[in-house]
Amino acid sequence: MLEIRGLTLRAGGRVLLQDLSLQVPGQGITALLGASGCGKSSVLKWLAGILPEGVQAEGEVLVDGQPRPTGDRLLAYQPQNDALFPWLTIAENAALGLRMAGVSAKLATARVLPLFAPFGLAGTEGLYPEDLSGGMRQRAAFLRTMVQERPFVLLDEPFSALDAVTRLKMQTWLLARLSATPRGGLLVTHDLQEAAALADRICVITAGHGVTLPVDMPHSERTEAAMAPLRETLKSLLLEECPP
């Protein structure tokens, strides 16, 4: 269990987030939902230990009840864009997280290459990012994140740059990957539909605070009609910050 306790974020004298507490179980997806500028991405950056200069944070991180530092090795962070280096091959990009963790180039490559087929990337090992579609680049970014085998993954709007069809395919693919290699995911999104479709629990940031809702329905039963009440509840929470 990953736990955030009492997180407050300030920037330029403005409070972005006030006393956020949130639990992320070690399996399934917890979505962090909110309007632009409410501090969602900053929560992930704080956890990853890369909070931008000028943003101050107060709060505590715990894993299984034990305090942990931000930037902890138990957390793998994936930024909003794929962040692939254009001068590296896809195999080299995918192995980069392991290399930065001190794994030798030979061992990192040996661990990455068998995963190209399961991640739908077979045949792209020697290509460069410019040779791949947006969806394929995103899969390469996921491979780089997941191969580190850390118990928790932090995903910052990983599908926002994709077209609607590719986004839907990647959402389905992500659920399958997290089911095949169970770990806890904290997903930042501003998309009500995405949160309702993917998450096992949803934390809505509104007026600087967080409200967490469980999503008890199996993914196989989450039709458009079945999820409509949840989307309306989420919309109502988000609109509390912006009354007419």
Automatic annotation (TrEMBL):
InterPro entries: AAA+_ATPase (IPR003593), ABC_transporter-like_ATP-bd (IPR003439), ABC_transporter-like_CS (IPR017871), ABC_transporter_ATP-bind (IPR050166), P-loop_NTPase (IPR027417). The keyword Signal does not apply. The keyword ATP-binding applies. Keywords: ATP-binding, Nucleotide-binding, Transport. It holds the Pfam family ABC_tran. SMART domains: AAA. One of its GO terms (molecular function) is ATP binding. Coiled coil: none annotated. It comes from the Bacteria. Residues 2-232 form the ABC transporter domain. Belongs to the ABC transporter superfamily. This is ABC transporter ATP-binding protein. It comes from Falsigemmobacter faecalis.
